[in-house]
Specification:
about 30% helix; 5-stranded parallel sheet; 9 strands; 4-stranded antiparallel sheet; globular; alpha/beta
Length: about 200
Amino acid sequence: MINLEKVSFYRADKLIIDDFDGQLNSGELVLLTGANGAGKSTLIQLIAGVLKPNGGRITFNGKDLSEINCKDQALLRSVCPQRRDFHLAFKVKDLTELLPAQRRSFALQNIIEALELDKLMHLPVIQLSLGEQQRVSLAIALVQESNFYLLDEPFSAQDSQSIIRIIKLLKSIANEKGVLVISHSAENLHSYFDREIKLS
């Protein structure tokens, strides 16, 4: 379980997150929503250890995040950023196989097929459309064997059918893992999630 107690974060003396309490359990798919500037991406960066809170406490299975080294944090959670810039002409296959075999999900092929990347595996990622690149970015996060997945806008640049396929994939992963998803276009998605966290 990831637990957040009274977490606060300031940026340039501006309060972004104020005394936030929340948790993410294994076996649940959670939607994180809120207005622009509410701190959704900041919250994921705090949980991921990219940012440090100014106040409060974040724990993974009872252990304070500040006491977990970077290598062990990487084993606990996998992150899909809101935007991953691809500048080098790596093939999609290379990007999904960057991790050592023992760190890759046993469901690697299922993830590739669910994200409709099977026909793109031998193409350079920089030649793909924005929506295809976003699915590659999501695949990079999901193929990592982890306890928790933190996904920032995984539905961006996707059509409605792709969104449904992605949600079905995430639900299958959330049978055993904890999955936290940020989405700005969540109006018709709530029913697919176990619960919603809304930042104001």
